[in-house]
Amino acid sequence: PFEVLVVGGGPAGAAAAIYAARKGIRTGVAAERFGGQVLDTMAIENFISVQATEGPKLGAALEAHVKDYDVDLMNLQRAEKLIAGKDLIEIQFANGGSLKAKTVVLSTGARWRNMNVPGEQEYRNKGVTFCPHCDGPLFKGKRVAVIGGGNSGVEAAIDLAGIVKHVTLLEFDSKLRADDVLQRKLHSLPNVDVITSAQTTEVLGDGQQVGALTYKDRVSGESRKVELEGVFVQIGLLPNTEWLKDSGVTLSPRGEIEIDIRGQTSLPGVFAAGDVTTVPYKQIVIAMGEGSKAALSAFDHLIRTSAP
Ligand code: FAD
């Protein structure tokens, strides 16, 4: 069996694998798609000490760094079940295989909920984006929309209002769902318009860049157009934890793995890190720090529980 088996190969999983391997213990990492979400983006400008990089480049660097160590890297492996036994934890995979380990680090990440409207995929990274902390500065002096009036949408609109020329916040429901204090702040800003009962219907552009979006006014039924250069979609981040239902790992009401400050989950020997957990602020540097921390906690668990 592995001493540490990491499930998920994004920034959190890569960091966990490296930190575990550096302790000289038997380490494996199994991932559905090694690299994770960074493979879906281009410009990355907030990976501290690297002024600018690109997603695929960072993904390749993660893989090269892991391969510097004695790590069993198993790509294209989709975990489907976690079974906590008396001494070992078993992970079963979609291909029928299974692996056993003394400790595991869960780092299966998350995915942004899409609007599923025409133009959204076509203009991804050409104006359609999901991450205000990442891409806000790219829209300096431009007009943007934020889709979604929950806490993340309203926080994004407040954040962006300080950077961009104008923000239009579109909410499907008849009212915003964000906390009152955020709504008050939002309404105090001069360069933000809020439109409720608005169903986004299409993202338009010239083939290269976003130029507008259309929405249906759900009260009048009319279709309207907003001219802009950017669309921030903030309608939910879904943790990849469906496979952990019934495993005994406690999930939050949003489906995120609950962890303590050491990355420990509700099951002994099972640690978790990165976007899949309750950790606030889903970012690359944070996922890497969390992955490192979870691996060190797994090592600490091993030296306390393994026979000498
Ligand atoms: P992920 O990167 O989501 O990795 C999860 C891993 O688990 C993947 O290998 C996946 O294949 C695997 N996996 C999932 N389910 C299973 C399963 N059942 N079995 C096995 N493996 C599984 N952050 C920044 O800091 N700066 C940026 O500029 C930035 N830009 C972004 C742009 C886009 C378009 C997106 C989508 C995200 C961006 N982010 C950015 C956020 C950043 O990518 C994430 O915070 C980070 O990748 C989280 O790392 P992670 O390892 O926790 O999860």
TrEMBL record:
Serves to protect the cell against DNA damage by alkyl hydroperoxides. It can use either NADH or NADPH as electron donor for direct reduction of redox dyes or of alkyl hydroperoxides when combined with the AhpC protein. It comes from Solimonas marina. Its cofactor is FAD. GO terms for cellular component: cytosol; protein-containing complex. The keyword NAD applies. FAD binds at residues 3-18, 265-275. The chain holds residues 212 to 519 of 526 of the full protein. The keyword Flavoprotein applies. Binds 1 FAD per subunit. GO terms for biological process: response to reactive oxygen species. Keywords: Disulfide bond, FAD, Flavoprotein, NAD, NADP, Oxidoreductase, Redox-active center. Residues 3-291 form the FAD/NAD(P)-binding domain. Belongs to the class-II pyridine nucleotide-disulfide oxidoreductase family. NAD(+) binds at residues 143-157. Homodimer. This is Alkyl hydroperoxide reductase subunit F.
